[in-house]
Design goal:
3 domains, about 280 residues, Nuclear Transport Factor 2, Chain: A, alpha+beta, Rna Polymerase Sigma Factor, Chain: A, single chain, Arc Repressor Mutant, subunit A, elongated, 7 strands, seven-stranded mixed β-sheet
Length: about 280
């Protein structure tokens, strides 16, 4: 007979996954307090489950948090807080200092863009594009087929890509993009971090990168291209283009700026997509 895992050992394993679970929940809900509620609910479900039968604890917990967040998004207007049952075990919730650190690491800009998505679209986009959860697992959470889950993420991706910049001051947005370009030209990693939202998403035709550190590393390594770049408007948004030595368009970047930080960068390199772009000189 398999023994039930020791409660302290199970709590230790859960705590190892807490940072990612809170990041998932925060991106889904846009609220640290609600994110903590979702993570705590995942702990309650884990403590009541046959934990010894769970092969991939991280994946199991991410799925549970996704389901909890989806329910919270769907019933946000009518949801009421339930008191904790006296018999439940509890894992200590992080205090204000940890909350501040998480808020800084997760960022707020992308959350503003995600508000335009339906709950199912938001879950599919966050879990797949930011946390690499397979569509098969997302399908089980939203009670749809993997193909339908893929369509949800694709639709969300188009909305995020085409969302208008929340800040109305185009001049200020251009200043932010100019600062990004100057830092990229100098290979200034710290300068790049200053203008990137901590939760920035960089979308390529081949995939996506997320997080300021990852995006800054990529930008700093392309200083030679940045030196040939010029600022423009791409579809009405602040953008950058790079041309080859004969003046032909080689690549383009479109930026979404929120609260003076770059939240989304869209890269275009495929000739067909480049030809379809509406590029105007920067005013």
């Amino acid at each position: 007979m398999t023994e039930t895992p020791d409660a302290d050992f199970l709590a230790e394993r859960f705590e190892a996954h807490r940072p990612q679970l809170r990041a998932v929940a925060h991106r889904m809900l846009g609220s640290l307090a609600e994110a903590d509620d979702a993570v705590q609910e995942a702990w309650f479900r884990l403590s009541r489950s046959r934990a010894q039968d769970i092969d991939n604890l991280g994946g199991w917990l991410t799925t549970v948090v996704g389901r909890v967040c989806l329910d919270m998004l769907r019933s946000r207007t009518s949801r009421r807080e339930e008191p904790l049952e006296s018999g439940r075990q509890s894992v200590p919730v992080a205090g204000p200092e940890q909350d501040a650190l998480l808020a800084d690491s997760v960022g707020v800009a992308l959350l503003v863009v995600l508000e335009a998505l339906t709950p199912a679209e938001r879950l599919a986009f966050v879990l797949h594009d930011l946390f690499a959860v397979p569509y098969e697992e997302i399908a089980a959470i939203v009670d749809r087929t993997p193909a339908a889950a893929r369509q949800l993420a694709s639709r969300a991706r188009r909305r995020v890509r085409g969302a208008p910049a929340p800040d109305a001051d185009l001049r200020r947005e251009r200043e932010v993009v100019d600062a990004f370009l100057a830092a990229a030209r100098d290979g200034d990693f710290d300068g790049l971090l200053k203008v990137l939202d901590p939760d920035v998403v960089a979308r390529f035709e081949t995939g996506v990168n997320a997080g300021a550190v990852t995006v800054a590393r990529g930008a700093a390594s392309f200083a030679h291209l940045a030196r040939r770049a010029e600022t423009v408007l791409v579809g009405g948004r602040p953008g950058v283009v790079v041309r080859d030595f004969e003046g032909r368009l080689e690549r383009a970047l479109a930026f979404t700026v929120v609260r003076d930080r770059i939240a989304v960068i869209e890269f275009f390199t495929e000739p067909g997509r480049l030809a379809a772009l509406e590029i105007e000189p920067a005013p």
